[in-house]
Design goal:
alpha/beta, 18 helices, 20 strands, single chain, six-stranded mixed β-sheet
Length: 630
C-alpha cells in the first residue's frame, strides 16, 4: 500500500471525568473521501482538530509525511478585523507574494477580491473560509459542516469541486445527500471508539445498526456476569478472602471494562410534538402577494447567491422578491420552500406569519391559526436567559406538554440537556444546543402550523431522523425552508420553488421530484433548440442536396416529423407545467370556476397529445436506427 499522507496512532483525549476518544488509529491516503459521523458531542470536531494539528491529544502521536499540506475549514469560521477578501484568502498561502492565486480562486467562486470582509453573511463567510482552505491546493482537506448556511445551488457546486480534489478529504456533515455524493468511506465515532468502513455512505445505517445490536448483546452478557460475581462477592467473602483475591480482581476488571465500553449508554433524544391545537381546514391564504426589499442587488435567475458579491447595493432601488404569489395552504399540507440564498425564502415566511408586511396583496390567516416558528436566526432565544427561564419565562418549574404538566428539568433532559446546562446562559450554548432548545420551546407551546426555517443546521443525524419522524406523525400543517435535500425528500409532499424575478411555482412531490422535473425541462428545451437548428440547417442546405428518391432512409415527411416532434413535445410540456401551476392556485377556482374547468380540460387534451407525439417520435426514431443499421 502507498505511504499514507498522515497517521494518528493510539490517540486519546481526556475530559477529566471521562475519555472522549481512546485508542484511536487512523491513516489518510490520497483519494480517500471519508465521511466522519457520530452524535453531537461524540468528538468529531475534536478529532478533526487533532488531524489538523490544531489541538494536542492527551496520549498518542500524529505523524505527517514531509511536505504534506493540511487545510482545515472549522465549523464556525471566525474572520476578524477588516481586510480585503484577497488578503484573507492569501493567508492560506505559504508565500504571500502569490496573491494572484487567491484572486483567481475568488473570481472562480464569483466573489470580488477587493471587497472587504465587513458585513459578510454566514454563507459568504463560509465560502470565503473555504477559499482560504483551498488556495494552497492541500493534500489533506478537512471540512467541518461545510454545507451549513449554504443554499442548494452552492452545495451542488461544492460537491463537484470536492469530487475533483486529488488528495485526502475528510468531511463532517449532517447532509446525507452531500455525503452520498462524495464519500468513499465512513469513519464512525461511537462511545469514544473509532471504526472505519470502506464503501458508500448509503451502507452506514445497516453497518452501524449491526454493530450496535452486537454491542447490546455483548454488554448484556457482561452485565449478567458482573451481577453474578457481585452476588458471590457479598456471600461469606470474609471467610474466603485470601484465596479469592484473584476473583475479586477479575470482578473489578470487568467493572472497569464495562465503564470503559459504555458504562452508561448514551441517552436518546425524545421529541413529543403533541397534537395540533384546533384550527380550521384552511391554514392561510395568500392573494396576489408581492414582496420587495430596499437597497439589495438582484440575483441572476437561477444562479447561486454567491454571484451577488460583485454587485453593489443601491439604497434608491428596490428588489422584487415575490411577485403576484397566490397560495391556499390547508391543514395537513407538507410544503417545502427551495431557492438560492438571498432570493426571498425567509422574507416570504415572515410575511406569511405576519412578521413583516407585503408590498402588495394580503395574507388571510385561517380560523384558530397557531404557528410554531423555528427561525434560523434564533431570534426567539434571549442569549442572556437560561434554557430553564426560556421555557418558564414567568417563573416556576413546570411546563405543559400536550395537556400534561411536566417538570422543566425532565422535559429538557428529553432534549439531551445536562442539569448544569439548564441554568447556563443561552449565549454560550453550542449551535446544536440552541437549535434543540428552540425546538423544545416550540413544542412546549400550543401550535397547529409548524414553520421550520433551516431547522437542520448544527443538528446531528440522529436528531434530524427524530425530527423527520415527528413531522411524519404530526397531525397539523408543516412548512419547511431547508437546504438539506434528503430532509426535504423525507418530510414534504410539495415544493414551492423560487424561479427568480419574483416568480414562485408549485410542484408536487419532494426535492428529488422537483429536480427531476427541472432536468427534464432542460432536456426538452435543448431537444427543441436542436430540432429547430437542424430544421433551419436543412432548409438552408436543401438546394445542394440530391433530390433523387432514396429507399434506404426515412421519407421526407417522416424525416420532417422526426425533427419537428421534439420541439412540439417540449412546447406541450411547458404548457402542461404552467397549467398545473395555475390550477394548483385555489384562488383561481374561487374567482372563475368556468375558466378553471376550461383550463383543466385543456390540460387533459395536452397530456393526451403529448403521449401521442411521444409514441410517434419513438416509432420514427426506431425506424431510423433500423435503416441506419442496414
Amino acid at each position: 500500500m502507498a505511504t499514507p499522507l498522515l497517521t494518528l496512532s493510539d490517540i486519546g483525549v481526556n475530559l477529566g471525568d471521562r475519555w472522549l476518544l481512546r485508542h484511536v488509529d487512523l491513516s489518510l491516503h490520497s483519494g480517500d473521501r471519508l465521511a466522519l459521523v457520530g452524535r453531537n458531542g461524540a468528538g468529531k470536531s475534536t478529532l478533526m482538530k487533532l488531524i489538523a494539528d490544531a489541538a494536542e491529544p492527551d496520549e498518542g502521536t500524529l505523524w505527517q509525511a514531509p511536505g504534506v499540506e493540511v487545510a482545515y475549514l472549522p465549523q464556525n469560521p471566525q474572520i476578524k478585523g477588516s481586510q480585503s477578501l484577497a488578503s484573507y484568502v492569501s493567508g492560506g498561502l505559504a508565500d504571500p507574494s502569490e496573491m494572484h492565486r487567491a484572486e483567481a480562486l475568488l473570481m472562480k467562486m464569483d466573489m470580488d477580491p477587493g471587497r472587504l470582509t465587513d458585513g459578510l453573511s454566514g454563507g459568504e463567510a463560509r465560502r470565503l473560509s473555504l477559499a482560504r482552505a483551498l488556495v494552497s491546493k492541500p493534500q489533506v482537506l478537512l471540512l467541518d459542516e461545510p454545507t451549513n448556511h449554504l443554499d442548494l445551488p452552492t452545495i451542488e457546486w461544492l460537491e463537484k469541486l470536492m469530487q475533483e480534489h486529488q488528495g485526502a478529504l475528510v468531511v463532517i456533515s449532517h447532509d446525507r445527500a452531500f455525503l452520498r455524493a462524495l464519500g468513499t468511506g465512513i469513519v464512525w465515532i461511537h462511545q469514544g471508539k473509532l471504526r472505519r468502513r470502506e464503501g458508500a455512505f448509503d451502507q452506514f445505517e445497516e453497518w452501524s445498526d449491526g454493530i450496535l445490536a452486537e454491542e447490546e448483546v455483548r454488554l448484556a452478557k457482561l452485565d449478567k456476569k458482573i451481577a453474578e460475581e457481585t452476588r458471590w462477592s457479598r456471600q461469606g467473602i470474609s471467610a474466603r478472602r485470601k484465596r479469592n483475591q484473584g476473583r475479586l480482581r477479575e470482578l473489578e476488571g470487568m467493572r472497569q471494562l464495562r465503564a470503559a465500553e459504555g458504562g452508561v449508554m448514551m441517552r436518546q433524544m425524545q421529541i413529543d410534538s403533541g397534537r395540533a391545537e384546533g384550527g380550521g381546514q384552511v391554514v392561510l391564504e395568500a392573494r396576489n402577494l408581492s414582496v420587495s426589499v430596499p437597497g439589495r442587488p438582484a440575483l441572476r435567475n437561477g444562479e447561486p447567491a454567491r454571484h451577488s458579491s460583485r454587485q453593489q447595493e443601491d439604497p434608491e432601488q428596490e428588489r422584487l422578491l415575490v411577485s403576484h404569489f397566490n397560495a391556499l395552504i390547508k391543514r395537513g399540507d407538507r410544503i417545502g420552500i427551495v431557492g438560492p440564498n438571498g432570493i426571498g425564502k425567509s422574507s416570504l415566511v415572515r410575511v406569511l406569519l405576519d412578521k413583516a408586511k407585503p408590498t402588495a396583496g394580503y395574507v388571510k390567516p385561517g380560523f384558530g391559526l397557531l404557528p410554531g416558528w423555528f427561525d434560523q436566526s434564533r431570534s426567539a432565544l434571549n442569549p442572556e436567559a437560561s434554557p430553564w427561564t426560556t421555557l418558564c419565562p414567568d417563573g416556576g418549574d413546570m411546563v405543559e406538554i400536550d395537556g400534561k404538566s411536566r417538570h422543566v428539568t425532565s422535559y429538557l433532559r428529553d432534549f439531551l440537556f445536562d442539569d448544569n446546562k439548564m441554568t447556563q446562559r443561552v449565549g454560550i450554548l453550542s449551535g446544536g444546543e440552541q437549535n434543540r432548545l428552540l425546538l423544545a420551546r416550540i413544542f412546549a407551546q400550543p401550535h397547529n402550523f409548524l414553520v421550520l426555517d433551516e431547522p437542520t443546521n448544527d443538528l446531528d443525524m440522529e436528531t434530524i431522523d427524530l425530527l423527520q419522524e415527528v413531522i411524519a406523525t404530526y397531525d397539523g400543517t408543516v412548512l419547511i425552508v431547508s437546504h438539506d435535500r434528503d430532509f426535504l425528500d423525507r418530510t414534504v409532499t410539495s415544493i414551492l420553488a423560487f424561479e427568480g424575478e419574483g416568480k414562485i411555482l408549485a410542484h408536487a412531490g419532494g426535492y428529488s421530484d422537483w429536480l427531476a422535473k427541472q432536468a427534464g425541462l432542460k432536456e426538452r428545451r435543448a431537444a427543441r433548440s436542436k430540432a429547430q437548428n437542424k430544421a433551419a440547417n436543412k432548409k438552408t442546405g436543401s438546394k445542394d442536396r440530391d433530390k433523387a428518391p432514396r429507399t434506404d432512409r426515412l421519407s421526407y415527411k417522416e424525416g420532417w416529423l422526426l425533427e419537428r416532434l421534439p420541439g412540439e413535445i417540449a412546447e406541450l410540456e411547458e404548457a402542461i407545467t404552467e397549467a398545473e401551476a395555475q390550477l394548483a392556485d385555489m384562488g383561481f377556482y374561487a374567482d372563475d370556476p368556468q375558466a378553471w374547468q376550461a383550463m383543466a380540460d385543456q390540460l387533459e387534451k395536452d397530456k393526451q397529445a403529448r403521449a401521442e407525439k411521444e409514441e410517434a417520435w419513438l416509432a420514427l426514431e426506431l425506424k431510423r436506427e433500423a435503416l441506419e443499421k442496414g
